[in-house]
Write a structure and sequence with these properties.
By secondary structure, this protein is an alpha/beta fold. The chain is built from 11 helices and 13 strands. The strands form 4 sheets. The protein has a 7-stranded mixed β-sheet with strand order 5-4-1-6-11-8-12. The longest helix is centred in the C-terminal third of the chain and has 18 residues.
Length: about 300
C-alpha cells in the first residue's frame, strides 16, 4: 500500500502558511481566517494539512496572523490525536511566501522542509505517490506545475524540448507556457539561507519564485507535472470557494469516501490505532463525519484505498 513508502522518507518538516487578510473574500473573512472557512464538510486547513500527511510528514508548523493563530491552535491542538506534532508561529504581516522559512527557521533546524499554502487543495489518484517521491528526495527542490487557462496570474514554468524546466517567471504578461507553479514546495535545508537572502520584490514581498529560481539556477530544481487526472483548487475568491466545496461534495457523495480526513490518513499510515479512531469518532457520531470514521473500523479487514486529497 502506497502510504508505507512514506515510512522510509527522509526527515522533513512541513509548514502550512495560513496567513493573509483574505480581502478578496470580504465580508466573509472580515472576522475569521479564510483557512478556517468550510470546504464542504471540513475546515479549509484540513486539505493542505492532510496533503503533508500523505507525504509522510508529521512535524508541522502552522503560520498565521496574530489574531488567527490562536484559533488554529484551538481547532487543531498539538496534533497528537492524529499522530502529529503541530506547532504555531505568527506572521505579523503578509510579506511574501518565502517569509515562511524565515519565521520557521528554528522549527526547521537542520532538516529538510516542505511548504504548502493554506488555501490550496490538491486531489488526484497519483498525488500521494508524487508527494511521497518528493519527500524522499534528499537534495534540491521539488515544485509542482499544473496546466491552467490563465497562467499570467501565477508563477509560470518554461520548459525546453526535453521537458526540463529552464525558466520561472512571476505573473508574466506574456507567459511562455500554461504551466503554473502550485502552492506546494519541497526543499532541502538550504532553503532557510536562500529565503533569508531574498530581496523584496517591486510589490514589497519576499517571493517564493525567487527561491525556486535560485534552485533552478543551481541545477537543483525538479518540476513534477500534475496531469489531467489531478485537481488543483485555489480558494481565494467567492466563486472558487463555492466551486471547491461542490467539487468535494460531488466526489464524496458519489464514492462514499472522505477527502482530506486526517483521522483516516493517520489510521491508514499506522500513526494511530482503531481505539483512537473510535474515541475521535464518538463525539461526532451524530453527523456523517463521525459515522464515516466508525465505518472505517467496520471495514478494517478489507480497507479501500485512502480517501484523502489523493489515493495512492
Amino acid at each position: 500500500m502506497a502510504p508505507s513508502a512514506a515510512a522510509t522518507a527522509a526527515r522533513r518538516r512541513g509548514i502550512v502558511l495560513a496567513g493573509g487578510s483574505g480581502t478578496r473574500l470580504y465580508p466573509v473573512t472580515q472576522v475569521v481566517s479564510k483557512q478556517l472557512l468550510p470546504i464542504y464538510d471540513k475546515p479549509m486547513i484540513y486539505y493542505p494539512l492532510t496533503t503533508l500527511m500523505l507525504a509522510g510528514i508529521r512535524d508541522i508548523l502552522v503560520i498565521s496572523t496574530p489574531k488567527d493563530t490562536p484559533r488554529f491552535a484551538e481547532l487543531l491542538g498539538d496534533g497528537s490525536r492524529w499522530g502529529l506534532s503541530l506547532q504555531y508561529r505568527v506572521q505579523p504581516s503578509p510579506d511574501g511566501l518565502a517569509q515562511a522559512f524565515i519565521i520557521g527557521r528554528d522549527f526547521i533546524g537542520s532538516d529538510a522542509a516542505a511548504l504548502i499554502l493554506g488555501d490550496n487543495i490538491f486531489y488526484g489518484h497519483e498525488l500521494a505517490e508524487q508527494v511521497q517521491r518528493a519527500n524522499r528526495r534528499g537534495a534540491g527542490a521539488t515544485v509542482f506545475a499544473y496546466h491552467v487557462n490563465d497562467p499570467q496570474r501565477y508563477g509560470v514554468v518554461e520548459f525546453d524540448a526535453q521537458r526540463r524546466a529552464v525558466r520561472i517567471e512571476e505573473k508574466p504578461a506574456t507567459p511562455r507556457s500554461n504551466y503554473a507553479v502550485t502552492g506546494l514546495y519541497f526543499y532541502d535545508n538550504r532553503v532557510v539561507d536562500i529565503a533569508a537572502s531574498v530581496m523584496p520584490s517591486a510589490r514589497g514581498e519576499l517571493e517564493i519564485t525567487d527561491v525556486n529560481r535560485a534552485y533552478l539556477e543551481a541545477g537543483a530544481l525538479q518540476v513534477e507535472i500534475l496531469g489531467r487526472g489531478m485537481a488543483w483548487l485555489d480558494t481565494g475568491t467567492h466563486w472558487s470557494l463555492l466551486e471547491a466545496s461542490q467539487f468535494i461534495e460531488t466526489i464524496e457523495r458519489r464514492q462514499g469516501l472522505k477527502i482530506a480526513c486526517p483521522e483516516e490518513i493517520a489510521y491508514r499510515m499506522g500513526w494511530i490505532g482503531a481505539g483512537e479512531v473510535e474515541a475521535l469518532a464518538r463525539p461526532l457520531a451524530k453527523n456523517d463525519y463521525g459515522q464515516y470514521l466508525l465505518r472505517l473500523l467496520d471495514d478494517r479487514g478489507d480497507l479501500p484505498p485512502p480517501a484523502a486529497p489523493a489515493a495512492p
